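Deliverable D5.2: sample structural annotation.
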Amino acid sequence: MIDQEHLKVGNEVFTTDHGSAVITKVARKYTYTTNRHIIIENSRLMTKHTGYGYSTYDVFKSKDDYEDHIKKVGFIEKVKQELRNIDLNLEQARIINDVLKLGVEE
């Protein structure tokens, strides 16, 4: 996802709902782009909620960053699903707890 340092005039941004746009103005509260639908709320680094029932969307530096994010989230979900399906014994659960530093106590 995007970070504060990327909010500079001329930089490109990408959202899942409206594609890409170029930053045209960085103000105190909002960052504006060439796409009137992409107004970034600086404090949240998400598109502005219009108050008319529209959703907010994450903002990425590029379409490639967005696609990498989707791959990462998909992979993590698959791993979580597989862990739910595994019948672990106590020793295996302890090892996973130690490796992932979960801090779960018996």
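Annotation notes: The mean pLDDT is 86. Residues 14 and 20 are 4 Å apart (CA to CA).
The annotation will be released with the project's public dataset once the embargo ends.
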